[in-house]
Design a protein that fits this description.
- 25% of the residues lie in helices and 33% in strands.
- The chain is α+β, with helices and mostly antiparallel strands.
- Strands 1, 2, 3, 4, 5, 6, 7 and 8 form an 8-stranded antiparallel sheet that branches.
- The chain is globular.
C-alpha cells in the first residue's frame, strides 16, 4: 500500500483516526504558535535558518514581514524553495511535536500583497501587535511582506515503526 507521498507504509497501516489526529495536532500547533523557523539557502547552497513571526491562511500560505536585506530575504530572492518548521518549545523533553513543511516563498506585490497584509495584520492585532497596512510593506517603507506557499506538510508519527517516521498530513 502506498500513501499519497508515494512512500510505502512500513509495518501496519495508519488508521483514518490516527491520520486525523495528526492533522488536528498539526492545526493546533500552527494555531498556538507565534513563530516559525524558516530555512533558506543562498545561491551557493549555504543554509540559513531564521525565526519569524507569522500569520497563516488555510494552513498553506504563511506570511511574514521582514527587511529585504535580511539574510533569509536575500536567500529566497535567489532560491525560492524553503523549509519551515513550527513547534511548541514549551513542552517537556521527549514530548515535543512539530509540523514540517516544504514551500516556495516570494516577496509579495500588487493584489496578493493586499490580501496577505490583511491576513498578517489580523493575526498581529490578535496577539497584541501593531496594525499593518500595505503602505507599511511597500517602498519606501523599510519592510516587505513575504509568503511561503506550502506544497507538503509532515509530522513525525510516534506510532510508526520502523524507519523514517515522517508522515504526510493535511492540516
Amino acid at each position: 500500500r502506498v500513501d499519497r507521498a508515494g512512500d510505502e507504509f512500513s509495518s501496519g497501516l495508519r488508521s483514518y483516526e490516527q491520520m486525523t489526529d495528526l492533522a488536528l495536532t498539526a492545526r493546533e500547533i500552527v494555531d498556538r504558535s507565534l513563530y516559525m523557523v524558516l530555512g533558506t539557502a543562498d545561491e551557493s547552497g549555504s543554509p540559513w535558518v531564521s525565526p519569524v513571526y507569522f500569520a497563516v491562511s488555510d494552513y498553506t500560505d504563511f506570511y511574514w514581514v521582514s527587511l529585504p536585506d535580511a539574510q533569509h530575504s536575500r536567500n529566497l530572492a535567489a532560491r525560492p524553495e524553503v523549509s519551515i518548521v513550527v513547534f511548541d518549545s514549551s513542552v517537556p523533553i521527549g514530548t515535543g511535536q512539530g509540523v514540517y513543511m516544504s514551500a516556495r516563498a516570494e516577496e509579495l506585490e500588487g493584489e496578493v500583497l493586499e490580501r496577505g497584509i490583511e491576513v498578517f495584520a489580523h493575526r498581529s492585532e490578535e496577539h497584541g501587535g501593531r496594525s499593518w497596512s500595505a503602505d507599511d510593506v511597500r517602498p519606501p517603507a523599510p519592510r516587505r511582506l513575504y509568503r511561503a506557499s506550502v506544497n507538503q506538510h509532515w509530522m513525525l508519527d510516534k506510532e510508526a515503526r520502523p524507519g523514517d517516521r515522517r508522515t504526510p498530513v493535511t492540516p
